[in-house]
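Input set for joint prediction.
Command: fold jointly, output tokens.
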Amino acid sequence: MRKQARLPQMTVGILGGGQLARMTVEAANRLGIKIAVLENQEDSSAGQIAAFEIVGHWSDLTALESLIAISDVITLENEFVDYQVLQRLEATGLPVYPSALTLRLIQDKAVQKQTLGTYGLPVPAFATVNTPVEIEAFGEKYGWPVILKARRNGYDGKGNWKLDDPADIEAGLKALDKGLGSLMVEAFVPFVKELAVMVVRRPSGEIAAYPVVETVQRDHICHTVQAPAGVSAEIAEVALTMAHSAVEAVEGVGVFGVELFLTGEGIVLINELAPRPHNSGHYTIEACPSSQFDNLLRAVLDLPLGETGLIAPAAMVNLLGQHQRSGGPDGLEKALAVRGASLHLYAKAESRPGRKMGHVTALAPGGTSDEALKIARQAADLLEY
Amino acid sequence: MRKQARLPQMTVGILGGGQLARMTVEAANRLGIKIAVLENQEDSSAGQIAAFEIVGHWSDLTALESLIAISDVITLENEFVDYQVLQRLEATGLPVYPSALTLRLIQDKAVQKQTLGTYGLPVPAFATVNTPVEIEAFGEKYGWPVILKARRNGYDGKGNWKLDDPADIEAGLKALDKGLGSLMVEAFVPFVKELAVMVVRRPSGEIAAYPVVETVQRDHICHTVQAPAGVSAEIAEVALTMAHSAVEAVEGVGVFGVELFLTGEGIVLINELAPRPHNSGHYTIEACPSSQFDNLLRAVLDLPLGETGLIAPAAMVNLLGQHQRSGGPDGLEKALAVRGASLHLYAKAESRPGRKMGHVTALAPGGTSDEALKIARQAADLLEY
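tokens >
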């Protein structure tokens, strides 16, 4: 099926056409690889620049068939694609990475935590819950607050609800608005830092990881990333080892974002695993010889992985929508004038409060990631979407 | 005419669809800028990935009109476009950078040298020649060998002929195969190094330069580039100042490659000026916060120029065609396995001996450009087109 190492003829199909697929197109262009995206709406962020744009939902068989017809391998840019869709794709004989198995082990967060726990990896205490009584029992056992979570389809804080005490249970259940059986509850981890590691893995098992980074969320959305993380070499080593193991635990092939908590006692726990390029890895475009997008392509095409070391301390700041409106950002000329800031604008037709519209990266050769953050933030603060 | 700083709606038209336009598309994607290319053949290197692909020659009025209709500004990727075509474009009111004036001062190499000389810049001795007798007289005056050159349309050594003594004149004239009146002759400069500087300049006159680099030609084609050049700070300063002045001399707007000779006596001379992204600036994609392609877009859209400093010592090696054939390169898997090498494949349908098919860049953070060159060369040597 594969055209051996003749990249200019290869097409990688992506389920989804958002900014992660867009940045994958950018990486693909350098290697002469073509990208086909499947996305609900025309002129999606990635659809605008991909070689092939197929409009349709991933549950739409005709659209899937069009994608299959032109792709040498299929990957995805979000974990909400039902794993049964991937099974259907796999049944055609086409390589699909991450696999249906991997997605099944990840997309239900309770199954994910169970899988990681069974593999011996430390995760916060958790339980699937079907009744308010079970939530209360969990809180009594592990202490309040607890986090009530939708087991599927949550992202950027959507689908999570913090319960400070039993009195919050009713409101939490109402907020998540799911039928019983689709929820889980987790012990609240009083972390001092959130860390993340991007891991890439080939079908052969060849694996590589990017440096441990520190992420800061604002309103549950990734706000800034600093590379490397300001942690000891020992903690970084623990985080890297866990991230490797987590991807092996789900038999992952492709690129994976592993989110971790670091507690005041120096304990590292796995928070979540994303089976795709991750916001915490955008800095790799400028800061590493091979970006997470470049390595996603290499991994799914079963090509040697690229170097993941850090060229210089780096930082990234997200550009989030503030208004409901269309068009480019205000303040662009001023932001472009910030020396050393690299702007990435996703060309989405509409901005909405909290929507990811772009990001800014800066490097600080010979300096620190704090210095890089200052530059990136200066540019980001000048932009308004 | 310009849509003020609302980039996602801007389209930059490019006359030409080769690898320089292709890498400009890659830079444009990050900023949500659209590119329209005008190129003779369908599926050109840039046409494959540009938002708009117009097939036609730049002398074809219908094709030009299509380009004008969708572009906010027009630029070019080679200096062979007749300046009168640019005059016609300018007459429509559309911004055209580099301008017709700049191109007129550059595309005839005798006019270019005259312009630079008049501006007080050191260039090799030269003369326009119409007869063999004039060539011989020039050689007697400035010494042999001399370089016989086509005044227009030469590149990568095509259009240049070295005359070791008067006996070579006849063969030289035959080789260049031009009518009399289109030739010039230059003193041969016994250089010890060839240097190059990329300069970017906005309509407002804001100007910036990338570091001085050292280039090595093989068979008159750029083979390797090392940044920074291994020259003293004084010589680098002289080269930078000359490069700035050269671009100002031709009232250049856009990005310019300034090729220089360094003699054993430490004298710097200007060899040639290219009014477009330049092979000696490809390393800037990885090695500088804003690449030459990013800054080309900023310059022609009259936006603030991006930072041109070096993140780390860097080197670039060209991938030249060795065979007449179609398809991707051999040896790709091995080349991708070279840690730290960044491959750029131009996705040209056909390879030909000497044709530029791609390039490899490597950085050496905390190291030297020699170390970077070793990595880039290792990967390049594994690839065969």
